[in-house]
Amino acid sequence: MRKALDAAADGRAAQGQMSFSRPTDDTLLVRLSGSWKMQEGLPSATEVLKQVESGPRVQRVAFDGQGITAWDSGLVTFLVKVLFQNSQKQIETDQAGLPEGVRRLLALATAVPEREGAARKTKRISLLARIGTDTIAAVRAAKEMLIFLGEAVVAFLMLLRGKARFRRSDLMLIIQECGANALGIVALITFLVGLILAFMGAIQLRQFGAQIYVADLVGIGMTREMAALMAGIIMAGRTGAAFAAQLGTMQVNEEIDALKTLGISPMEFLVLPRMLALVLMMPLLTLYGDLLGILGGVVVGTGILNLSLTEYLIETQKAVHLSSFAVGLVKSVVFGVLVAVAGCLRGMQCGRSAQAVGEAATSAVVMAIVSIIAADGIFAVITDALGV
Amino acid sequence: MAPTEARITVQNVTMAYGAFVIQRDLNFSVKRGEIFIIMGGSGCGKSTVLRALTGLKVPATGDVLYDGVNFWESDPLQRDRTMRRFGILYQSGALWSSMTLAENVGLPLGEYTGLRPSEIREVASLKLALVGLAGFEDYYPSEISGGMRKRAGVARALALDPDILYFDEPSAGLDPISSKLLDDLILELRDSLGSTVVVVTHELASIFSIGDNAVFLDPETKTMLAVGNPKRLRDESEDPKVRTFLTRGEPVAATK
What we know:
The complex is a heterodimer of chains A (388) and B (256).
Chain A (H helix, E strand, L loop, with lengths): L1 H8 L7 E5 L5 E10 L9 H8 L6 E12 L1 H16 L3 E3 L5 H12 L15 H34 L7 H11 L4 H24 L7 H39 L2 H7 L4 H38 L5 H11 L2 H28 L4 H33 L2
Parallel strand pairs in A: 2-3, 3-4
Antiparallel strand pairs in A: 1-2
Helix pairs in contact in A: 3-4, 5-10, 6-10, 7-8, 7-10, 8-10, 8-11, 8-12, 8-13, 10-11, 10-12, 12-13
Chain B lengths: L5 E12 L2 E12 L3 E6 L5 H9 L6 E6 L2 E2 L5 H8 L2 E4 L11 H12 L4 H14 L15 H12 L6 E5 L7 H18 L2 E5 L3 H7 L2 E6 L4 E6 L1 H7 L3 H7 L10
Parallel strand pairs in B: 3-8, 3-9, 6-7, 7-8
Antiparallel strand pairs in B: 1-2, 1-4, 4-5, 9-10
Helix pairs in contact in B: 3-4, 3-5, 4-5, 6-7, 8-9
């Protein structure tokens, strides 16, 4: 009451209120007055229910809305609830006393009944059931990945037979995007990694007076391991995510469907050029990374360890064999395939919404990085066993 | 018409992307409580004009007035307040795909009203019921059909009980019956809420069944050719382009 008076004192309309009366024994008349706007706080529909339940049995609920000064959805929400309560109790509702606009909105709101079975019930899923569904999903994901790889191989065979259908200009664009445009970031990262490797080695090796072996450490470390790994991870974040987002958006826009219905395999037209581009560019980026990494080592060797440039380079030449380069380059090709597969697979599997595109890009990057690291581990074991 | 009646006034507006002019010298006004149609062939810049009205794109020249207040020259806060009174249905619904329908409708309520979450949920359910989507509160936009998405877009546009409703191509992508139902909904909402409605469309059936007033934009001369009640324009317009458009290009007799 106090609040209503204050509001009136402010010069605004009084807050929405209701009062009850019983013109006949089985009729409840609800008198509504004031401003029924949701912002201002409204009486609850359960008050009507309480009135209905107190006293003799009510057959009919009627309204008098003459005192209503203003209303919005708050009033309609309130009335919808009252209508629902009444129908539950099989009480008739007389809407005649309500403003016309309100009556029309009520009619509109109840015109289309709630569709049977449309409403969602939150079900509790037992732990076992969840493990089961997750396992089935994992098996299905593995199967999808295998199918995708198989299709990619088929597309590649088509390419070898010169029958693959894709646009050469697309391939060139993608090569530019994931090759030339990535030079800057690859240069920066591999240079810094070379620098860091040299610093780490320098501290240890200086204790034995063996500074010169920093050149060996950096040279072998970069060529066999770090250049390919860094290029792979950069490509995963840069290009893998871009592939997934691009293909995902094409999925959303039905562009992939348009290709399929034209009889053009999206595997050949979209996935193949992307894989080709990455597989071609990764070794080049890695080679470039090798050079920049060794350069990083040179900066530390000549600048801090007082080695001469010739000394450093000759030591590098002695330490790094062609086989080291070969190991790095083979790895880089494999990493390229992994990044391209992760990006394209997630893009092609993408759902048809903005959120799904985001998820596709995220999971493409995660999948690419995890598989790169895992593959690198396998390489370490294999090269050790083969003695290269 | 008396100037006081005009809810929205467009004065000498020119819309352009850089130096590329889309529409020039637009002058029209929308009266309170009427359904106003912005019509014209594809690519004539209807939606661009709508962007100037809804606060998404500054006109190259000219003014947009709401109740006599210059919209684009008022300070950003004032403009935000004006924009909050709009309800806008975008062409493809533009529902946020990461949210359920109830959350889509509830977001503006949560941002701009002090309602409790349970009350927001009730109001959202009401709005969805108004557009015939009762029971679909917990569906994601990707799980329902295009027509339903559009109606859910209307529910979101209605969330804050707007004074002015903007519809961008409401019938695009809908079957004739669904688009008729949507037209009926627009009429019903105007009548029960008393809102002012601006509809961008080239759907003739809609234009004639709901339009009180209309402006015709021409892509060739890049300006408006006619203003008036669409039926009257069809029967009485002097301009052959306007009549051709409103009669679906079927040859019109030289004399009506």
